Each structure stands twice: as C-alpha cells, then as structure tokens.
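Hello,

Our lab assistant flagged a job as stuck in the queue for most of the afternoon. It eventually completed. Since we weren't sure the result was trustworthy after the delay, we are filing this so someone can double-check. Below is the sequence as submitted and the structure that was eventually returned. Let us know if re-running is recommended.
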Amino acid sequence: MKKTTIGIIIGSIREKAESARMAAEIEKLIRAQHSEVVIEMFSLREHDLPLWTEDKWKKESEIKSLWHPISARLKACDGFVVISPEWAGMVPPHLKNFLLMCDGGELAHKPGQLVSVSAGAGGAYPIAELRMSGYKNNFICWLPDHVILRQVGDLFTSDTLSERDSRTKARIEYSMNFLVEMAQAMKPVWEKHQNLKSYKNGM
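-- returned structure --
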C-alpha cells in the first residue's frame, strides 16, 4: 500500500521566515505522530516562481517547464498544510500566485489544513481570504478547522516547552491528525469521481 504523502507549502519568501520555522515544527509533530507519513516541503522562497500568465497554458512555454517538476511533486501528495503569513492583513502575493499556478489538478479534492502566522495578535484575515477565494480553480478542500499562530516569535523558542507552547503543540497535533486521516479517507473518493477534463473551473 502506498504511503500517505503530506505537502507543506510555506507561503513566505523572507530569508528568516517564521512560516518556515513553523513548517519545521509542524513537520516534526506530524512525524512524531505518523512515522509512516512522507513529508514534502514546498518553499516559495526556494521555488521563486514567475507571476502567472496565460503562457502557462502554452505547451512549450518557459513558465510551463519551470512548473512541471513542482506540479509532479504536488500531484504525488494526498493532502496539504498551507502556511500563510499575514502581510498588511493579507495573504502574500507569492502564495496567491502559487495557488493560481495549481490549475492542473495538483491540489484537487485533497484536504488542506490552513495555518496562519502572525507576529502580533492578528492572523485571522489570511484564513478568511483563503477560505473565500483560495480554492476555486485548484479545488483544494479546506478542512473546517484551522490554526492561527499569534505572536509567533515567542513560540517554540526553547527546548523546554512553556505552557503556551504545550497548548499550541496539542492543538497542532489535533489538527494534523485530522489532516492525515482525511487525506487517507478522501483519496479513494477523488480517484474514483474526479473529472477535471469536463469540470476544470469552479463555479
């Protein structure tokens, strides 16, 4: 039986991104609970994708060739953690651009766990934005629950967990357990019923 693969998409392009640091923590927590799960990391800083244009639909275009290896890795995943920092109350343009690029079934009908990262007391706006418009033509299925990591600079900064660290860790574990189980449960459904040739755009 093929192992379950979870992709972690890091939506920040900053050199020292808290989103990347939280991605590493989330990876560690998933591995501790599900040693059999394969983790694929997708760092937007490392991929440095161009802005989406209609050239992506052209067979021999440069953007299509750049996207092809990333697309293949995404298609091999069964579910996703999508980590968004909050930039001026918004989802970073690089993450929205990445989701636009995923119009070839890479995320389609697979569960997505939203995680928002805020340096302060915010973090709710990226969740709302992605729930409203971040799924339409890529068909990712956002799970009902989400995680908001507020005042993130103070989280998981020591080998000894604070009370807040422990509460946050427990909540992340709860959400990631749901993600892994949903990825396994949903796979036979979308493999059987998905028809992106007839219905490639959301309504």
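-- support follow-up --
The delay was a queue issue, not a problem with the job. The result is valid. Strands lie at 5-10, 38-43, 79-85, 111-117, 141-149. Residues 8 and 81 are 5 Å apart (CA to CA).
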